[in-house]
Design goal:
Layout (H helix, E strand, L loop, with lengths): L4 H16 L34 E7 L6 H20 L8 E7 L4 H14 L5 E2 L4 H14 L3 E3 L15 E3 L4 H16 L3 E7 L3 H17 L3 E2 L6 E3 L7 H10 L3 E5 L2 H13 L6 E2 L7 H6 L5 E5 L8 H17 L10 H19 L9 H13 L4 E2 L4 E4 L5 E3 L2 E6 L2 E7 L2
Parallel strand pairs: 1-2, 1-3, 3-4, 4-5, 6-7, 6-8, 6-9, 9-10, 10-11
Antiparallel strand pairs: 11-15, 12-13, 13-14, 15-16
Helix pairs in contact: 2-10, 2-11, 3-4, 5-6, 11-12
Protein backbone atom coordinates (compact mmCIF):
# COMPACT_ATOMS: atom_id res chain seq x y z
CA UNK A 1 0.00 0.00 0.00
CA UNK A 2 2.90 2.36 0.81
CA UNK A 3 5.64 2.33 -1.81
CA UNK A 4 8.67 3.39 0.17
CA UNK A 5 9.99 3.34 3.72
CA UNK A 6 10.24 7.14 3.72
CA UNK A 7 6.65 7.64 2.63
CA UNK A 8 5.53 5.07 5.17
CA UNK A 9 7.27 6.91 7.99
CA UNK A 10 5.79 10.24 6.91
CA UNK A 11 2.31 8.71 6.74
CA UNK A 12 2.64 7.12 10.15
CA UNK A 13 3.88 10.34 11.69
CA UNK A 14 0.95 12.22 10.27
CA UNK A 15 -1.48 9.68 11.63
CA UNK A 16 0.05 9.73 15.10
CA UNK A 17 -0.16 13.51 15.12
CA UNK A 18 -3.81 13.33 14.18
CA UNK A 19 -4.44 10.99 17.09
CA UNK A 20 -2.76 13.35 19.48
CA UNK A 21 -5.00 16.24 18.53
CA UNK A 22 -8.10 14.07 18.62
CA UNK A 23 -9.00 14.18 14.96
CA UNK A 24 -7.67 10.89 13.75
CA UNK A 25 -11.08 9.41 14.29
CA UNK A 26 -12.42 10.45 10.92
CA UNK A 27 -14.15 8.16 8.54
CA UNK A 28 -11.74 9.34 5.87
CA UNK A 29 -9.11 7.19 7.52
CA UNK A 30 -11.06 4.18 6.30
CA UNK A 31 -13.10 3.79 9.47
CA UNK A 32 -16.71 3.05 10.16
CA UNK A 33 -19.57 5.26 11.16
CA UNK A 34 -19.10 4.42 14.83
CA UNK A 35 -18.31 8.05 15.42
CA UNK A 36 -14.82 7.98 16.76
CA UNK A 37 -14.64 4.43 15.41
CA UNK A 38 -12.13 5.43 12.79
CA UNK A 39 -9.96 6.71 15.61
CA UNK A 40 -9.62 3.18 16.84
CA UNK A 41 -7.89 2.51 13.56
CA UNK A 42 -4.36 3.90 13.48
CA UNK A 43 -4.00 2.36 9.98
CA UNK A 44 -1.12 0.21 11.06
CA UNK A 45 0.59 3.10 12.80
CA UNK A 46 3.19 1.97 15.31
CA UNK A 47 5.04 4.09 17.79
CA UNK A 48 6.39 1.20 19.86
CA UNK A 49 4.88 2.49 23.10
CA UNK A 50 2.71 -0.56 23.82
CA UNK A 51 4.22 -3.73 25.21
CA UNK A 52 2.86 -7.24 24.83
CA UNK A 53 1.50 -9.22 21.91
CA UNK A 54 -2.12 -7.97 22.08
CA UNK A 55 -4.37 -5.41 23.75
CA UNK A 56 -7.18 -6.96 25.78
CA UNK A 57 -10.57 -5.42 26.44
CA UNK A 58 -13.41 -7.31 28.12
CA UNK A 59 -17.10 -7.34 27.15
CA UNK A 60 -19.99 -8.51 29.32
CA UNK A 61 -23.06 -9.19 27.17
CA UNK A 62 -26.39 -10.97 27.84
CA UNK A 63 -26.13 -13.46 24.98
CA UNK A 64 -28.53 -15.82 26.73
CA UNK A 65 -31.56 -15.17 28.90
CA UNK A 66 -34.52 -12.80 28.47
CA UNK A 67 -32.73 -10.15 26.40
CA UNK A 68 -30.53 -12.45 24.34
CA UNK A 69 -31.26 -10.42 21.19
CA UNK A 70 -29.39 -7.49 22.72
CA UNK A 71 -26.45 -9.71 23.69
CA UNK A 72 -26.22 -11.32 20.26
CA UNK A 73 -26.34 -8.03 18.37
CA UNK A 74 -23.81 -6.58 20.84
CA UNK A 75 -21.50 -9.50 20.12
CA UNK A 76 -21.82 -9.19 16.35
CA UNK A 77 -21.06 -5.47 16.50
CA UNK A 78 -18.11 -5.92 18.85
CA UNK A 79 -16.60 -8.54 16.55
CA UNK A 80 -17.10 -6.10 13.69
CA UNK A 81 -15.26 -3.37 15.63
CA UNK A 82 -12.47 -5.75 16.59
CA UNK A 83 -11.96 -6.82 12.97
CA UNK A 84 -12.11 -3.25 11.71
CA UNK A 85 -9.43 -2.14 14.13
CA UNK A 86 -7.19 -5.14 13.46
CA UNK A 87 -7.56 -4.92 9.70
CA UNK A 88 -6.29 -1.35 9.98
CA UNK A 89 -3.17 -2.35 11.91
CA UNK A 90 -4.46 -2.70 15.46
CA UNK A 91 -3.85 -0.34 18.36
CA UNK A 92 -0.39 1.13 18.04
CA UNK A 93 0.47 -1.92 15.97
CA UNK A 94 -0.89 -4.42 18.51
CA UNK A 95 -3.97 -6.50 17.69
CA UNK A 96 -7.08 -5.88 19.76
CA UNK A 97 -8.58 -8.91 21.43
CA UNK A 98 -12.08 -8.56 22.89
CA UNK A 99 -12.77 -11.25 25.49
CA UNK A 100 -16.48 -11.99 25.85
CA UNK A 101 -18.44 -13.07 28.91
CA UNK A 102 -22.11 -14.05 28.74
CA UNK A 103 -23.96 -12.75 31.79
CA UNK A 104 -27.29 -14.31 30.87
CA UNK A 105 -28.79 -11.02 32.16
CA UNK A 106 -28.15 -12.31 35.71
CA UNK A 107 -26.71 -9.80 38.22
CA UNK A 108 -24.52 -12.32 40.07
CA UNK A 109 -23.18 -13.67 36.79
CA UNK A 110 -22.35 -10.15 35.62
CA UNK A 111 -20.40 -9.58 38.83
CA UNK A 112 -18.53 -12.85 38.24
CA UNK A 113 -17.76 -11.60 34.76
CA UNK A 114 -16.06 -8.50 36.13
CA UNK A 115 -13.97 -10.66 38.47
CA UNK A 116 -12.96 -13.11 35.73
CA UNK A 117 -12.11 -10.49 33.11
CA UNK A 118 -10.19 -8.36 35.60
CA UNK A 119 -8.33 -11.06 37.51
CA UNK A 120 -7.98 -14.01 35.12
CA UNK A 121 -7.97 -12.38 31.69
CA UNK A 122 -6.28 -9.19 32.90
CA UNK A 123 -8.11 -6.91 30.50
CA UNK A 124 -7.45 -3.17 30.57
CA UNK A 125 -11.12 -2.20 30.76
CA UNK A 126 -14.59 -3.75 30.39
CA UNK A 127 -17.53 -2.86 28.16
CA UNK A 128 -20.75 -3.79 29.98
CA UNK A 129 -22.63 -5.15 31.78
CA UNK A 130 -25.91 -4.31 30.10
CA UNK A 131 -28.85 -4.15 32.50
CA UNK A 132 -29.29 -1.84 35.48
CA UNK A 133 -29.99 -4.84 37.70
CA UNK A 134 -26.62 -6.28 36.62
CA UNK A 135 -24.84 -2.95 37.03
CA UNK A 136 -26.11 -2.53 40.58
CA UNK A 137 -24.27 -5.72 41.55
CA UNK A 138 -21.31 -5.62 39.15
CA UNK A 139 -20.32 -1.96 39.56
CA UNK A 140 -19.24 -2.38 43.22
CA UNK A 141 -17.06 -5.31 42.10
CA UNK A 142 -15.42 -3.06 39.52
CA UNK A 143 -14.53 -0.64 42.30
CA UNK A 144 -13.04 -3.51 44.30
CA UNK A 145 -11.05 -4.72 41.29
CA UNK A 146 -10.10 -1.15 40.31
CA UNK A 147 -11.03 -1.54 36.67
CA UNK A 148 -13.14 0.72 34.46
CA UNK A 149 -16.48 -0.76 33.44
CA UNK A 150 -18.84 1.09 31.11
CA UNK A 151 -22.40 -0.13 30.59
CA UNK A 152 -23.99 -0.05 27.18
CA UNK A 153 -27.62 -0.20 28.45
CA UNK A 154 -28.04 0.69 32.12
CA UNK A 155 -30.08 3.87 32.61
CA UNK A 156 -31.79 3.55 36.00
CA UNK A 157 -31.14 6.85 37.78
CA UNK A 158 -28.18 6.94 40.16
CA UNK A 159 -26.56 3.57 39.49
CA UNK A 160 -23.19 4.90 38.30
CA UNK A 161 -23.24 7.81 40.76
CA UNK A 162 -23.25 5.33 43.64
CA UNK A 163 -20.19 3.57 42.30
CA UNK A 164 -17.55 6.21 41.67
CA UNK A 165 -14.84 6.26 40.44
CA UNK A 166 -14.60 3.12 38.28
CA UNK A 167 -18.15 2.65 36.96
CA UNK A 168 -19.51 4.49 33.91
CA UNK A 169 -22.46 4.31 31.55
CA UNK A 170 -22.51 5.35 27.91
CA UNK A 171 -26.20 5.97 28.39
CA UNK A 172 -28.40 8.87 29.41
CA UNK A 173 -30.22 8.75 32.75
CA UNK A 174 -33.90 7.89 32.23
CA UNK A 175 -34.97 10.97 34.20
CA UNK A 176 -33.15 13.14 31.65
CA UNK A 177 -34.94 11.34 28.82
CA UNK A 178 -38.33 11.67 30.54
CA UNK A 179 -37.94 15.42 31.00
CA UNK A 180 -37.95 15.67 27.21
CA UNK A 181 -40.23 12.83 26.11
CA UNK A 182 -43.13 13.36 28.52
CA UNK A 183 -43.90 17.01 27.57
CA UNK A 184 -43.85 16.18 23.87
CA UNK A 185 -46.06 13.12 24.41
CA UNK A 186 -48.62 14.99 26.52
CA UNK A 187 -48.92 17.81 24.01
CA UNK A 188 -49.00 15.59 20.93
CA UNK A 189 -51.69 13.22 22.22
CA UNK A 190 -53.55 15.63 24.52
CA UNK A 191 -53.03 13.34 27.50
CA UNK A 192 -55.06 14.11 30.63
CA UNK A 193 -55.06 10.65 32.20
CA UNK A 194 -52.30 8.05 31.95
CA UNK A 195 -52.11 4.46 33.23
CA UNK A 196 -49.00 2.54 34.29
CA UNK A 197 -47.85 -0.97 33.40
CA UNK A 198 -44.38 -2.20 34.32
CA UNK A 199 -42.11 -5.22 34.71
CA UNK A 200 -41.89 -5.76 38.45
CA UNK A 201 -38.78 -7.93 38.22
CA UNK A 202 -36.58 -5.51 36.31
CA UNK A 203 -34.73 -2.65 37.97
CA UNK A 204 -35.06 -0.04 35.23
CA UNK A 205 -38.60 -1.12 34.36
CA UNK A 206 -39.65 -0.70 37.97
CA UNK A 207 -37.92 2.66 38.19
CA UNK A 208 -39.62 3.84 34.99
CA UNK A 209 -43.03 2.60 36.08
CA UNK A 210 -43.03 3.74 39.69
CA UNK A 211 -40.92 6.88 39.77
CA UNK A 212 -39.44 8.33 36.61
CA UNK A 213 -42.33 8.50 34.15
CA UNK A 214 -45.24 8.87 36.63
CA UNK A 215 -43.31 11.72 38.27
CA UNK A 216 -42.73 13.42 34.93
CA UNK A 217 -46.42 13.20 34.03
CA UNK A 218 -47.61 14.44 37.43
CA UNK A 219 -45.31 17.45 37.06
CA UNK A 220 -47.18 18.22 33.84
CA UNK A 221 -50.57 18.09 35.58
CA UNK A 222 -51.52 14.68 34.17
CA UNK A 223 -53.47 12.29 36.41
CA UNK A 224 -51.87 8.87 36.90
CA UNK A 225 -55.08 6.87 37.19
CA UNK A 226 -53.59 3.78 38.83
CA UNK A 227 -50.72 5.36 40.74
CA UNK A 228 -51.57 3.41 43.88
CA UNK A 229 -52.26 0.13 42.11
CA UNK A 230 -50.07 -0.07 38.99
CA UNK A 231 -50.44 -3.04 36.68
CA UNK A 232 -47.43 -5.37 36.83
CA UNK A 233 -46.10 -8.27 34.80
CA UNK A 234 -42.74 -9.85 34.02
CA UNK A 235 -40.85 -9.93 30.73
CA UNK A 236 -41.10 -13.71 30.62
CA UNK A 237 -44.93 -13.69 30.87
CA UNK A 238 -46.56 -15.16 27.78
CA UNK A 239 -50.17 -14.33 28.66
CA UNK A 240 -50.93 -10.73 29.71
CA UNK A 241 -54.64 -10.85 28.96
CA UNK A 242 -55.60 -9.96 32.52
CA UNK A 243 -53.21 -7.02 32.68
CA UNK A 244 -54.49 -5.48 29.46
CA UNK A 245 -58.12 -6.13 30.42
CA UNK A 246 -57.43 -4.11 33.58
CA UNK A 247 -55.70 -1.41 31.53
CA UNK A 248 -58.74 -1.19 29.23
CA UNK A 249 -61.06 -0.70 32.20
CA UNK A 250 -59.09 2.35 33.37
CA UNK A 251 -60.09 4.33 30.26
CA UNK A 252 -56.81 6.24 30.20
CA UNK A 253 -55.72 8.45 27.32
CA UNK A 254 -52.29 6.80 27.18
CA UNK A 255 -50.13 4.19 28.89
CA UNK A 256 -46.67 4.18 30.46
CA UNK A 257 -44.88 0.86 29.88
CA UNK A 258 -41.81 0.27 31.99
CA UNK A 259 -40.17 -2.81 30.49
CA UNK A 260 -37.69 -4.20 28.00
CA UNK A 261 -38.62 -4.25 24.31
CA UNK A 262 -39.74 -7.91 24.44
CA UNK A 263 -42.04 -7.55 27.45
CA UNK A 264 -43.35 -4.27 26.06
CA UNK A 265 -44.04 -6.01 22.76
CA UNK A 266 -46.15 -8.62 24.56
CA UNK A 267 -48.23 -5.87 26.17
CA UNK A 268 -48.63 -3.98 22.88
CA UNK A 269 -49.73 -7.08 20.98
CA UNK A 270 -52.40 -7.78 23.58
CA UNK A 271 -53.49 -4.13 23.52
CA UNK A 272 -53.99 -4.45 19.78
CA UNK A 273 -55.94 -7.69 20.20
CA UNK A 274 -58.27 -6.10 22.73
CA UNK A 275 -58.63 -2.89 20.75
CA UNK A 276 -56.79 -0.69 23.27
CA UNK A 277 -55.15 1.53 20.67
CA UNK A 278 -53.94 4.30 22.97
CA UNK A 279 -50.43 5.76 22.61
CA UNK A 280 -47.65 4.29 24.74
CA UNK A 281 -44.49 5.82 26.20
CA UNK A 282 -41.48 4.07 27.64
CA UNK A 283 -37.80 4.52 28.37
CA UNK A 284 -34.74 3.55 26.38
CA UNK A 285 -35.44 -0.21 26.87
CA UNK A 286 -38.17 0.30 24.23
CA UNK A 287 -35.53 0.78 21.56
CA UNK A 288 -35.56 -2.24 19.29
CA UNK A 289 -36.68 -3.05 15.78
CA UNK A 290 -38.79 -5.88 17.25
CA UNK A 291 -41.10 -3.57 19.19
CA UNK A 292 -42.06 -1.75 15.99
CA UNK A 293 -43.59 -4.96 14.67
CA UNK A 294 -45.68 -5.73 17.76
CA UNK A 295 -48.59 -3.36 17.06
CA UNK A 296 -47.72 -0.93 14.27
CA UNK A 297 -51.03 0.90 14.70
CA UNK A 298 -50.17 1.98 18.25
CA UNK A 299 -47.89 5.03 18.43
CA UNK A 300 -44.99 4.51 20.83
CA UNK A 301 -42.63 7.19 22.11
CA UNK A 302 -39.18 6.89 23.64
CA UNK A 303 -35.78 8.55 23.53
CA UNK A 304 -32.66 7.32 21.80
CA UNK A 305 -29.12 8.37 21.12
CA UNK A 306 -29.17 6.24 17.96
CA UNK A 307 -31.67 4.24 15.93
CA UNK A 308 -31.59 2.77 12.40
CA UNK A 309 -32.74 5.51 10.07
CA UNK A 310 -31.06 8.32 12.00
CA UNK A 311 -30.12 10.85 9.35
CA UNK A 312 -26.49 11.51 10.28
CA UNK A 313 -23.47 10.42 8.27
CA UNK A 314 -21.81 8.42 11.05
CA UNK A 315 -25.11 6.81 12.03
CA UNK A 316 -25.83 5.77 8.45
CA UNK A 317 -22.41 4.22 8.04
CA UNK A 318 -22.71 2.39 11.35
CA UNK A 319 -26.18 1.12 10.42
CA UNK A 320 -24.96 -0.29 7.12
CA UNK A 321 -21.95 -2.03 8.61
CA UNK A 322 -23.67 -3.27 11.77
CA UNK A 323 -26.69 -4.57 9.85
CA UNK A 324 -24.36 -6.66 7.69
CA UNK A 325 -22.44 -7.91 10.75
CA UNK A 326 -25.66 -8.96 12.47
CA UNK A 327 -26.91 -10.72 9.34
CA UNK A 328 -23.56 -12.47 8.87
CA UNK A 329 -23.62 -13.72 12.50
CA UNK A 330 -26.53 -15.94 11.48
CA UNK A 331 -28.01 -16.36 14.97
CA UNK A 332 -30.82 -13.78 14.84
CA UNK A 333 -34.09 -13.51 12.93
CA UNK A 334 -33.91 -12.12 9.41
CA UNK A 335 -34.28 -8.37 9.37
CA UNK A 336 -32.84 -7.79 12.86
CA UNK A 337 -31.37 -4.30 12.96
CA UNK A 338 -28.70 -2.75 15.20
CA UNK A 339 -30.01 -0.82 18.17
CA UNK A 340 -28.87 2.03 20.39
CA UNK A 341 -26.98 -0.30 22.69
CA UNK A 342 -24.98 -1.75 19.80
CA UNK A 343 -23.98 1.78 18.85
CA UNK A 344 -23.00 2.34 22.48
CA UNK A 345 -20.78 -0.74 22.38
CA UNK A 346 -19.02 0.62 19.30
CA UNK A 347 -18.49 3.90 21.13
CA UNK A 348 -17.30 2.28 24.36
CA UNK A 349 -14.59 0.22 22.69
CA UNK A 350 -13.37 3.23 20.76
CA UNK A 351 -13.40 5.40 23.89
CA UNK A 352 -11.17 2.78 25.51
CA UNK A 353 -8.91 2.69 22.46
CA UNK A 354 -8.60 6.46 22.48
CA UNK A 355 -7.77 6.35 26.19
CA UNK A 356 -5.09 3.73 25.59
CA UNK A 357 -3.52 5.77 22.79
CA UNK A 358 -3.63 9.13 24.53
CA UNK A 359 -3.14 8.50 28.24
CA UNK A 360 0.25 6.79 28.27
CA UNK A 361 -0.95 3.22 28.77
CA UNK A 362 1.96 0.79 28.44
CA UNK A 363 0.11 -2.55 28.12
CA UNK A 364 2.91 -4.04 30.22
CA UNK A 365 1.53 -6.64 32.70
CA UNK A 366 3.78 -5.16 35.39
CA UNK A 367 1.96 -1.83 34.98
CA UNK A 368 -1.60 -3.17 34.78
CA UNK A 369 -2.81 -1.31 37.86
CA UNK A 370 -1.33 2.00 36.67
CA UNK A 371 -2.65 1.46 33.13
CA UNK A 372 -6.15 0.96 34.45
CA UNK A 373 -5.85 4.15 36.49
CA UNK A 374 -4.78 6.06 33.35
CA UNK A 375 -7.85 4.82 31.49
CA UNK A 376 -10.06 5.77 34.44
CA UNK A 377 -8.65 9.28 34.57
CA UNK A 378 -9.02 9.72 30.82
CA UNK A 379 -12.66 8.64 30.60
CA UNK A 380 -13.55 10.66 33.70
CA UNK A 381 -12.73 13.80 31.71
CA UNK A 382 -14.30 12.76 28.41
CA UNK A 383 -16.24 15.67 26.92
CA UNK A 384 -16.16 15.84 23.13
CA UNK A 385 -15.95 12.32 21.75
CA UNK A 386 -17.78 12.07 18.42
CA UNK A 387 -20.07 9.09 18.71
CA UNK A 388 -22.43 7.28 16.38
CA UNK A 389 -25.39 9.58 16.99
CA UNK A 390 -23.57 12.74 18.02
CA UNK A 391 -21.34 14.18 20.73
CA UNK A 392 -20.51 11.99 23.74
CA UNK A 393 -19.22 13.08 27.13
CA UNK A 394 -19.35 11.68 30.65
CA UNK A 395 -20.67 13.73 33.56
CA UNK A 396 -19.56 13.80 37.19
CA UNK A 397 -21.93 10.93 38.02
CA UNK A 398 -20.34 8.69 35.39
CA UNK A 399 -23.36 8.89 33.07
CA UNK A 400 -23.42 9.75 29.40
CA UNK A 401 -23.78 13.40 28.50
CA UNK A 402 -24.99 12.81 24.95
CA UNK A 403 -27.11 14.23 22.22
CA UNK A 404 -30.40 12.36 22.05
CA UNK A 405 -33.63 12.29 20.14
CA UNK A 406 -37.30 11.95 21.07
CA UNK A 407 -38.55 9.27 18.70
CA UNK A 408 -42.01 8.22 17.60
CA UNK A 409 -42.46 4.63 16.50
CA UNK A 410 -45.42 3.91 14.25
CA UNK A 411 -46.11 1.82 11.16
CA UNK A 412 -42.80 0.02 11.50
CA UNK A 413 -40.44 2.98 11.67
CA UNK A 414 -38.83 5.34 14.17
CA UNK A 415 -38.97 9.04 13.41
CA UNK A 416 -37.28 11.95 15.21
CA UNK A 417 -39.86 14.39 16.62
CA UNK A 418 -37.65 16.41 18.98
CA UNK A 419 -34.02 16.64 20.10
CA UNK A 420 -32.10 17.25 23.30
CA UNK A 421 -30.70 20.52 21.91
Amino acid sequence: MLKSVGSKRRSLSALVALLLVGSALLSACGGSGGGQSAGAKPEGGKTGKLAGSEVRIGAIVPSSGPVAEWGKTNTAVLKMVEKRINDAGGIDGKPLRIIFFDSGAKPDQAANGVRKLASDDKVLAIAGPALSSEAEVAFPVANQQKIVVMSQNSSKPGVAAKNRPWAYRDTVDEAVFAAKTAPWFVKKFNVKKVAVVYDAKDAVGTSLGTKVLPGAFKNLGVTVVNENSPITFTTTDVDVTAQVTKLKSLEADAVIIGAFYNGSSTILREMKRQGVLIPAIGGSPFISSAILEAAPEIPIVSAATYFPGLDRARAKEFTDQATKAIKDAGNLPAGTEPNMFDANMDEIVNIFVEAILKSGVTNDPKNLEQDREKIRDYVANLKEFQGVGGRVGLNKDGDGDKEFYVVLGQNGKWAVVDTSK
